[in-house]
Amino acid sequence: MKINKITNVLFFVIISISFFTCVEDSDFTIPESLGIEENEDITKILDSIGEGTLQLKTIEQIKKLYISGNNPLEVTSNIVVKGYVISSDKSGNFYKEFYMQDAPENPTAGIKVALNFSNSYNKFNIGREIYIRLKGLYIGETNSGNGIITIGGRVKNTNIKEVENVTVNQISNHIYRSETTKEIIPKIIEFAGINETHIGTFITLENVFFDAQLSGKSYVDPKEDFDTQRKIKTCLGLGYDELLLETSSFSRFSNETLPEKAGSINAVVSKDFGGNFIVLNLNNTNDVDMNEEKCSPLPIANFTTTLLQENFDEQSGDIAVLNWINHREKGTKSWRSYTDSYAQSKAARVGSKNSGDLSTISWLITKGINLDTTSQEFLSFETSNSFANGSELEVLISTDFDGDENNITAANWTLLPAKIVSDGEGYKNWIHSTYIDLSSYSGTVYIAFKYLGNSNVNFDGTYELDNIVINAK
Amino acid sequence: MKSGVTYKITGRHLVDINAAYLTTAPTIRNTFSNSRENNNVVFDLKSEKTLSTDISYVFRNPIITSKVTAYYTSIKDATEISFYFADGVGGDNTAFVQEILSGINKKHLGLEFGLEAQVTSTFKLKGAASVGQFTYDNNPNLVLTTEADSESLSAGFVDGFKDFGETNLKNYKLAAGPQNAYSFGFEYRDPDYWWLGATVNFFSNTFIDISPLNRSKNFYLDDDGLPFLDYDKTIAKELLTQEKFSDYSVVNLVGGKSLKIKDYYLSVFATVNNLLNKTYKSGGFEQGRNANYRQLKEDKSLDKPIFGSKYWYGRGTTYFLNVSISF
Fold it and tell me: Under an 8 A CB cutoff, do A14 and B224 touch?
């Protein structure tokens, strides 16, 4: 009996021990982040900024240090720039580069960072706060003159006008990420208002669709070796406005079929390789949300009133349309009449080439237009260029200008979101401005075409202007 | 300190209880991290403490002798030092390092059973089983030391010294050979002065020696001290699963014969181990080279990992013959 008791107790003890202590092979815990890690280098940078030994600059300030087309600029001062990553190379549409903008929301400027680092999304993920110590790096362009200002690591061996990627060894001493990842909220941009200041920022365009001719096609043309540009459009007034979406043939979504309906698109604003056009680059196709019906432009037949129409056919020499102002604010070049030999039509043009002027600002201002008698008005015109690199043409509107040539600069002028011919466009082509809605303006308004340039070889382009119309109902 | 009690219930039934508490002072080998290279000492060095208890029940009768033992051993504050070349320390850096693992607690727990039956005066059957579980019982502290050069500086070493904090070793198995073993055999002694014995041994639960660096925060941290963004817990769990070797069995033969020739005694003794020439892994260790998630994942996704685990294999069939003459 005693023996039984003892063996029973023994048995019980053994079984209970094995019950409580048995360890399964998978009972281990993997090491895991507690989310409290800090990047010590960032702490040092912030300390140095606090002490004043390092200066924090905005992306906008950094971009101003460099002028497109010039030789890369080596940064020799102790400056640091902060930004939030907005692009990702995860899907292969970006390669050895990322874009960062100055704020997670409502950015004012963005910049490209070229780096010898693939799969950078594993480190510099979208929304990541980045600090770049610029001393020893270069600010320039990876393709000279393309207008995409880039932070690079050195000057290219084969072309002193271009920057080379930041090397892997440089990354650890220059590009730092903080522990912060913010949600990037794309800035909603009016389609026609998209311009070079948006390069390097993450934006949303609404009510857009792919050109009907692209129906059934994919993001990348299988015949293309590198990039494919696909036209996206939106309705604007009496017609359409369009823009190019550029996708690398190395992107994972290159074979996906383009959506046929309309909706919104979130993308990084950049330029094509040559820097001729503004293009959009997708991070991935989740940023394309097109499930709605396409818009249709307003029927032009309803716009029976023409408030303004000028084709310069009656002009010669300096432009002198009745009640218009042809004014030189700076420099010696005015808007002049000329005959376009390709279009066989007269037009107006201005350019500062060979002027010898330090600065050229030339205005062509329409007569006063009364918008109170009509409910909706659309401005449209056409522009062309000849080597317009660096020079600018702006279209402005003023409601407080009194028509007096002496008061031009005193009046308030607002930039209109018109499409002006881009620098890379062929010189024979005339570009339609799209239809610019003026219905938010009232009273007597003046429309101005303002040319900015100088005799510097990079700023002396010529612009041509024709067929200015305001349709109204 | 040791003590033991034997309680004889009857002459045939015995209960034997032992307990011991030992402290082992640190040795030179685990006091200096690498005495051949530098004069670094292990900080906060402690004596190793061992608590060991066992309880046995013995049953004997003229035919059967058997014994059941349950044991529990707990080791606390052990220190272990090892050297290796690590790839991926503090991100994507490499260094020859000394690894100091301190404050290790280990737990040994198990049951043993043995039985011998004298079936006839010449024939004896033997059986034994041992079922154990030897595990790490805590998350010890991991410190690496290396030469204080620029490379180690960029990997985050301060004066050639880097504290990795706790390493998640708890519940990993100790690499102490097969944790479960079973043996069954017989022995035949012929009155004509020859004998023959054979055993079949079956082993299971042999585990690889794991790399502690891979279980520390180094595993998930990038070179800037922030976690890897591509750290996938499911994959990490898979990567860090301790390799368990296949079960294996080995047959051993032993036999002998002794002769008297005139005044000489000639005895012949022969053994054959691993008679069936089984190939098996008897142990191994994970290399410390792929010291982080990315490196390890990359290496393990190769068909043939470059820095895969190192293994020890058991010997094939071995023969041993001993002839002796005594005069």
Answer: no
Q: What is the pTM of this model?
A: 0.77
pLDDT tens digits for B79-126?
Answer: 888 888 877 776 677 788 888 898 999 999 899 999 999 988 899 999
Q: With 80 as the cut, is the pLDDT of residue B36 above it?
A: no
Contact (CB<8Å) B225/A38: yes
pLDDT in tens, A83-138: 999 999 999 999 999 999 999 999 999 999 999 998 999 999 999 999 999 999 99
Q: How far is the alpha carbon of B271 from chain A, nearest alpha carbon, in Å?
A: 36
Residue A213 lies in a domain: yes
Picking from A275, A305, A286, A433, the residue whose alpha carbon sits closest to that of residue A370 is: A305
Segment A155-182 mean pLDDT: 93
Cα of A371 to nearest chain B Cα, Å: 57
On whether any CB of chain B is under 8 Å from the CB of A33, the answer is: yes
Q: Are residues A395 and A255 in the same domain?
A: no
Q: Are A350 and A395 members of one domain?
A: yes
Residue with tokens 């650890």: A172
- Is the confidence at residue B155, as pLDDT, over 60? yes
The whole-angstrom distance between B38's CA and the closest CA on chain A is 28
Answer whether B171 sits within 8 Å of A30, measured CB to CB: no
- In chain A, the number of structural domains is 3
Q: Nearest Cα to A386, choosing from A466, A458, A464, A276? A: A464
Note whether A45 and A164 are same-domain residues: yes
Average pLDDT of chain B, as a whole number: 88
Ordered DSSP codes for A268-318: EEEE-TTS-SEEEE-S-GGGEEEEEPPP-PPPGGG--EEEEEE--TT--SB
